[in-house]
Amino acid sequence: MAHRHLSQRVVVPVMFVATVFIVIVDGAITTVALPAIARQFQLAPARLDAVVVVYPVCVGVAVPASAWLGDRFGGKRLLLASMALFAASSALCGAAGNLGTLVAFRALQGLAGGLLTPVAGALLFRTFSARERVRASRVLIFPQQIAPAVAPILGGVLVDGLSWRWVFYVNLPLGLAAVLFGLAFLEPHRPEQHGPEQHGRRRFDLPGLLLSAGGLAGLTYGICAGSDHGWTSPGILLSLLTGAALLAATVHVELRTRDPILRLTLFRDRLFRDCSVISLIGLIPILGAMFLGPLFIQDALGGSAMDSGTSTFTEAFGVLLTVQVAGALYARVGPRAIIGGGLLGVAAVLVLFSTCDLHTSLWTFRLYMFLLGVAMGGVFMPTTVASMSTISKADMAQASTLNTVVRQTAGALAPAVVTTLLVAGGSGAAGSGGAGPSVSTYQDAYLVLAGIALLSALYAFTLRDGPARQAATSGIPEPAEPAPVG
């Protein structure tokens, strides 16, 4: 067959890049189209909250099932089926005739997106050894940084030149190309080859799926919508409390289930657990700053959307620069020093951002964004690679799923924290952008994010990274048995 003529060390990274690129671009590009969608359906912008919130909620529903589905049906089948569903639902979103159908198709898109990222990540980590992952990550970081930088500009071009529908239609050719490439070259993954458990024959943990999916969905909705509707409103409180209760029940059930949908026992691995904590807490100031920057430029400084896009994309260049350096130093100094130093850098740059006022030029802001990217580059790759250093190939799908849950939670928390800080700070003379949060409120928000980054850095310096350094230099044997269950 054709796929035998192309190494999987090329095919799998291509599929991973395509997956990450299309998911990131879709998330960033959709927000650009919201004003045009509101005009199309003659709705107030606030009525479009459902279009934004339904996607991460449905991602939270799908993620817990991704590992079991991948092991049951194979990584190739699930990845290509999810990509096809994502592309088809994107086209349906573009063809939606009213808000209700648009929200329904966005939900379908979220379910597909919730499967794509963990499955692609599991395939990637199964393909490369622990020693090779650092080198591979130095290359794979490029599309992950280019995508969010390009998406807002692409969205503006599509909305202004064609219509809002094209921000969804554009996913169709991209998704179709990825599916065809995968059908031709991606080799089937056979779970039984990677461990004695033969995951493909595991029982389906329906109670665990219902509890975890319901808990993640409830918590995600409460976090995403809380800043808009008020954290003390009955609906938000009910969603948050219900989500937290379901997740607590999930922990209780999954630790006592022979074949859990979420293998929480992987958190007994200290390195995996500590890296997960760093990802959860450390990503909040990073993603929060990325969310806060455009708001400051447009609302406080009165800049345009183009000013915002061209002033925040410099972060990507900083990340790309540092990742290459971090990759070269990873085995020599270990991830602990790199991650801790990166988070300290994030905290320092956020303090710089807190000095911005109405007299700050866009070029100064661009410089700060570049410096933020330089610091961020020391966090992303080392944390991800280190977290998988002691995970067996048999558990890669489960570990990738848990990583996705952690990052998804951080991705929901970051804008919620920022929005809450801006609302709590009150409004004032926001500057030429009109009424809104005062400049001092933005400054205070940056300082709070800096404090969170500092706490994350202190925790990162406690990381025991010996196994990660060993894996990056001489490699370590795969554990004889997966993490114990129950």
What would a concise description of this structure say?
With 486 residues, the protein is mainly alpha-helical.
What would you say this structure looks like, in words?
With 486 residues, the protein is mainly α. Helices cover 75% and strands 1% of the residues. It folds into 3 domains: 1-188, MFS general substrate transporter like domains (Growth Hormone, Chain: A); 205-260; 266-474, Growth Hormone, Chain: A (Up-down Bundle), CATH 1.20.1250.20. The protein is built from 18 helices and 2 strands. Strands 1-2 form a two-stranded antiparallel ribbon. A hairpin with a 7-residue loop joins β1 (427-428) and β2 (436-437). α10 runs parallel beside α13 (335-353) and α10 (270-300) runs antiparallel to α17. The protein starts with 7 loop residues before the first helix and ends in a 13-residue tail after the last helix. Mean pLDDT is 81; it is low at 192-200, 428-434 and 476-486.
Structural class: mainly alpha
CATH architecture classification name of the largest domain: Up-down Bundle
Overall strand count: 2
Q: Spell the H/E element sequence.
A: HHHHHHHHHHHHHHHHEEHH
Order of strands across the biggest sheet? 1-2
Could you say what the CATH topology of the largest domain is called?
Answer: Growth Hormone, Chain: A
Radius of gyration: 22 Å
The tally of structural domains comes to 3
Biggest pleated-sheet summary? 2 strands, antiparallel
Counting DSSP H or I runs of 4 or more residues, the number of helices is 18
The CATH class label of the largest domain is: Mainly Alpha
Poorly predicted runs:
192-200, 428-434, 476-486
State which percent range the strand residues make up.
under 5%
* Mean pLDDT metric: 81
CATH H-tier superfamily of the largest domain? MFS general substrate transporter like domains
Any idea what the shape is? globular
